[in-house]
Amino acid sequence: MAHVSMTVNGKVRKGEVEPRMLLVHFLREQLLLTGTHVGCDTSQCGACTVLVDGRSAKSCTIFAVQADGAAITTIEGLAKDGQLHPLQEGFWEEHGLQCGYCTPGMIMSAVNLLNETPKPTEQQIREGISGNFCRCTGYQHIVNAIQHAANKG
Amino acid sequence: MAASPVLPKLVGERVKRREDPRLIQGRGTYVDDLKVAGMRHLAFKRSDVAHGRIRSIDTSAAEAMEGVEAVFTGAQIAELLAPMPIGTPFPSPPHRAVAADVVRYAGEPVAVVVASDRYTARDAADAIVVDIEPLPAVVDPELAMTGKPTVIHADFPNNLAVALVPSGTGVGADGSVDDTAIDKAFAAAEVVISQRMMNQRLVPNAMEPRGVLAHFEPGKGSMTIWSSTQNPHILRTMIAAMTGLGQDQVRAIAPEVGGGFGAKINIYGEEYVAAAVSKALGLPVKWIEDRSEAFVATTHGRDIIGYVDVAARRDGKVLGLKLRLIADVGAYNMLLTAAIPTLTMMMANGTYDIPAIRTTLTEVFTNKTPTDAYRGAGRPEATYFVERAMDMLARELKMDPAELRRRNFIGADQFPFQTQMGAVYDSGDYLKALDRALEVSNWSGLIAERDAARKDGRLVGLGLAMYVEVCGIGPSSSLPTGGWEHSQVTIERDGRISATTGASPHGQGNETTFAQMLGDQFGVPIEHITIHHGDTGIVKQGIGTFGSRSQAVGGTALHLAGGKVKAKMAKFAAALLEAHEEDIVFENGRIGVKGAPASARSFAEVAAYAYVPVPLPPGLDPGLSEEAFFEPANNTYPFGCHITMLEVDRETGEPRLLKLFAVDDAGHLINPLIVEGQIHGGLAQGIGQAMIEEAVYNDDGQLMTGSFMDYALPRATDFPRFELHATVTPTPVNPLGAKGVGEAGTLGSTPSIVNAAVDALAGFGVTHIDMMLRPEKLWRIIHGGQA
Fold first, then answer.
1. Inter-CA distances, A50 with A45, A59, A101, B340, B716, Å
2. Does residue A36 contact residue A46 with C-beta atoms inside 8 Å?
3. How do B356-365 and B417-418 pair as beta strands?
4. Which B residues in the span 696-755 are in contact with A, Cβ-Cβ below 8 Å?
5. Which residues numbered 106-135 in A keep a CB inside 8 Å of some CB on B?
6. Residue B145 lies in a domain
7. From CA B95, how far away is CA B97, in angstroms rounded?
8. Nearest to B347 by CA among B633, B91, B553, B639
9. Contact at 8 Å (CB) between B429 and B466?
10. C-alpha to C-alpha distances, B416 to B319, B419, B556, B726, nearest whole angstrom
11. What CATH architecture is A86-152?
């Protein structure tokens, strides 16, 4: 077992993990942050996207031990002081989700996109979320949701 | 007294979803998010080969591993579970939840491990050694029909799951066949179009893989089972039957469900195994499907060949249609497998009044993952065959594809329209939908744009397709589960409203649409209403969500239950206000007498009175809670027209969808925002089928597209912005006039795109291209044509 310590949503979290434990399983099983989802086992779907040191990463491609010392933000840490993040507002306002399973990862990818490109074109949005699958929406309302947030920022 | 606020009308408005706050904050609870004290994890050992006889299974290494509770082979599971039931009346071979002797597709379970955590369970499954004697495998249904090189189920010669079944003109209810009319149609034809078309196999791929948590409590003798399912009440029925419990002893819960698309209708072996193992061990057990497992272990969709022949006059009038269908159902019949292709037969008319139609259906077993419902389920297949054939006919006749369709439509004055296929189309105006689509897409402008692009050497094509589908299937004679839906509406003592629905959603937004309906019905704020679903412990009865039935059937049950309780509440209000109940009005959170607003009491006050009725009005019982079952007398038949513009890259053969216009008629809409979302999602899956999705097997029965690295699930960059429009033709089948919209997008988009691809490449002499539109295939047409 290995000892890990990381800052998750602003709080220091420690744990004992098997070296092979994926970061997503550490978040979900040990920290009970179940908002981060697992949708595949080949790092294609992006449902497990979180921010690692401010940049989006698929938490199924990282071992928990590799995140030792890192600052992690999950979907649970996005709203501040009871205020939804502009992207969360956008997804609600523009019907950017249906079943909701891809949504946390999609929103975290969009956070990264808007951090890097605050006023993206539609094409830049589509490319920016192309590492995240959604099977429900056909993406159009997700694009609208991200535009909604970008226009507020 | 302050004037009460005027409440906005909710039905027909783009109300934001009430489900979303929890989902956008990561607070939804899906099956894998649940933990029960003492819970163990299951992992399945699956067959690597597509067809073979199990010689031996060695579980000793797995059983010796620390943290392993138990290992069950197929033979041991067979002692706990009978073969799995199916939901159709077709003859069906025995199907064990875990194979005991013969495996018939790669991925079929052969053993199951129970362990302390999911990593250990997986390790232990990997440590099981299975020795399988390979048998010949068959993956081509037309080869399988010859009985060569193998027969998969002993009692099904030539692998025929369903031997040739005829339907249509001249086929009697007793099965008698009279060819006079269909022969006459083809004899009189001035032109005949014949084409073999492949409607390829697809993998549904809901983003949440399947999962189940079964918790048998020995002290109580009862079972709670959480599952990622579209229909918890069907799950309860089946789990009870398979575990020997009563339906009163099983509570089935569909918590947050991450998409279904038809593939979570079926009750799967893993669900039965979880229940049986939990009961046998007296422990809660959870199984969560990996995506790699999902590709082989969750049912696939489509996979049907259509041999289409169309007989027509040169003026475009279609005289006859023959459609010979061969469905590859994979290795076993699942819950609805055998019934899906019958919907393809049923919808062979499409939107057309065709004098003579003959369809035949053969269903064939192969060594592949079983098929079952996938969004559209039988209707996209029919639409594809008919609309491709109509397009080929238009091209042959050098006629505008819209004009050809216009000449063959069932007229708006012909409804209800009895087809030769046994359907009674409820209502429709196909010409209106077509004209609307031509107008909003600026069809003549698109033609000019296409022609201008072609002058520049670009390969641009236009496609058009009509569709009509069958939704909200009923009455019960059409659905073995029952064709009804159930709802209970309760006015609580504080005046808030609780309502249940058996239509268990997985993204459809019923918590919002159903609350909109009740808000208007009772004149109360939407915030005062809670819609309960997905839990047989709370929702007394139900069928589930599939076949675009939530609104048309479930919504109607809700409306009827609401009406009953409203009528009773009006009686209490009349007693309280000393008025006639027919003069009672519900509005803006108050109940009063028509024309005397000052007299009105608050909704909560009347509710409180109904629960402490002093005095009790004569003829009334206390309380405000009523339920309703709604069984539709007929199906609904939504329809529409989809128009696409597509370009093929001359150098690479890569197709690109440039434009898509969809006109959909689903009758009355409760929430146009949610309807748009449903149509978008359907379009994405229809486009995915046309352009990039395909489940490919090799000759040994190995799925070559068994992960997201090889199966092309559409990404955001694969789509243009869709343009949606609607016509509104209410259905007379239910009082809401709502037809259903969940599957519509998959109907017209697919043939429209292939029609556009053929249009783009027609200059190279091609008349048909089988899906998907792989760039290599298109490149060969371009370069072969030039050679």
1. 13, 6, 14, 40, 19
2. no
3. unpaired
4. 707-709, 713, 715-717, 719, 721-722, 745
5. 107, 122, 125-127, 129-130, 132-135
6. no
7. 7
8. B639
9. no
10. 21, 10, 21, 21
11. Orthogonal Bundle (1.10)
- CATH code, domain with B663: 3.30.365.10
* Domain range enclosing B234: 34-135+207-259+264-297
Task: Calculate mean pLDDT across residues B445-452.
Answer: 98
Contact B361, B342 (CB under 8 A): yes
* Residues 6+ away with beta carbon under 8 Å from B135: B51, B52, B53, B102, B150
Best mutation target among B16, B22, B207 (most A Cβ atoms within 10 Å) is B207
Partner-chain residue, chosen from A45, A76, A79, that has the shortest CB–CB distance to B708: A45
CA-to-CA distance for B134 and B150, rounded, in angstroms?
12
Per-residue model confidence as pLDDT tens digits over B330-362: 999 999 999 999 999 999 999 999 999 999 999
Is the ipTM above a cut-off of 0.85? yes
Residue A32 CB neighbours (<10 A)? 10
Place of tokens 């007299």: B599
Return d(Cα B505, Cα B229) in angstroms, integer.
Answer: 9
**CB-based contact (8 Å) between A44 and chain B?**
yes
Name the closest residue on chain B to residue A87, using Cα atoms: B24
Note the residue count of chain B: 787
**CA proximity to A86, closest of B676, B18, B24, B19:** B24
Q: Which residues of chain A have a CB within 8 Å of the CB of B301?
A: none
| pLDDT tens-digit series, residues B102-161 | 999 999 999 999 999 999 999 999 999 999 999 999 999 999 999 999 999 999 999 999
Nearest beta carbon to residue B208 from set A39, A41, A107: A39
CB atoms inside a 10 Å sphere around CB B309: 18
What residues does B585 pair with on adjacent strands? B592
Taking a C-beta distance cutoff of 8 angstroms, is the pair B706, B770 a contact? no
Are the beta carbons of A99 and B16 separated by less than 8 Å? no
**Whether the bond into B772 is cis, omega within 30 of 0:** yes
Name the residue of chain B whose CA is nearest to A21's CA.
Answer: B119
B673 at A interface, C-beta within 8 A: yes
pLDDT in tens, B467-495: 999 999 989 998 888 999 999 999 999 99
CB contact under 8 A, B507 and A99: yes
* Helices (H) then strands (E): counts for chain A: 5, 5
Q: B114 and B71 share a domain? A: yes
- This prediction has a pTM of 0.97
CA B458 to CA B787: how far, in whole Å?
A: 18
Q: Which fold has domain A2-77?
A: Ubiquitin-like (UB roll) (3.10.20)
What pLDDT is attached to residue B787? 39
